[in-house]
Amino acid sequence: MMWEETKNEKQVVKKLNSMFLEAKHSSLRKMFVHTNLATRGFHQLWRDWWKDAIPPRLEVDMILVFDELTELDKVFTAGVEVEYFKPRKKNFYDGLQQVLSFSLFGFDSLVLWHIFSPESKNKDIDEYVKPVKEMVEGFRLPLVYLATKLTDEGRFEFFAPWEFYSSSKVDTRYLITCLRDLCDKKRNPLLDKKEVEKRKEILKVLLKIPI
Q1: Is residue 211 assigned to a domain?
Q2: Contacts within 8 Å (CB) and 24+ apart, 32-40
Q3: How far apart are CA 90 and CA 98, in angstroms?
């Protein structure tokens, strides 16, 4: 599937999954896409605050499992919310509420990834990215905000947290390295709570990730 053929987030995430796996990055242990945390199998994760028989809708676009640098043989998980932008089709704050909700499920790091289509103009992307950066930095939100533009060659231009584009396009391996380092510096502060730590353990068991 070429980038110009992608029409929505699901197709974009599917393509990213292929690219990440093909990159064979040494620090990326596992990757899950479109994981629904609202199924009955995850009941223990949300039953503490959701009493209805019908669970809330909560799908995580990407779960990345990285090596934990501070502890050998340990891993940490990043919950990623992907929002795919075509010119003037969305609000700049799309995905922010969703990614913050991931914190309750025990992810070690939270990532909001705004991906802009190849036909998006750089000045328009800047208009979307600037207010999100101001909110994340101004409120010191404990999440990684990543904004990139896709290229027809399957590479990425960065608009956040750094601004290098037009003359600099990075490949998937470099992007994974950047993402891994960013996640290491932005940790989920709710993990200090015992109930969230328990949900982290349950999440890892259900995903068959070593605790």
Answers
A1: no
A2: 32/60, 32/62, 32/63, 32/65, 32/207, 33/61, 33/62, 33/63, 34/10, 34/59, 34/60, 34/61, 35/59, 35/60, 35/63, 35/207, 36/60, 37/105
A3: 15
CA proximity to 204, closest of 61, 86, 29, 52: 29
For tokens 């502890």, name the residue. Answer: 71
User: Does residue 53 lie in a domain region?
Assistant: yes
- pLDDT tens digit sequence for 136-186: 999 999 999 999 998 877 889 999 999 876 666 889 999 999 999 999 999
Question: pLDDT digits over 75-128, tens only?
Answer: 899 999 999 998 877 899 999 999 999 998 899 999 999 999 988 999 999 999
What is the number of structural domains in the chain?
1
Contact 99, 24 (CB under 8 A): no
Q: Is residue 46 part of a domain?
A: yes
Asked whether the beta carbons of 72 and 45 are under 8 A apart, the reply is no
Residues spanned by the domain of 42: 3-206
Give the end-to-end CA distance of the chain in Å, rounded to a whole number. Answer: 35
167's tokens: 């003359």
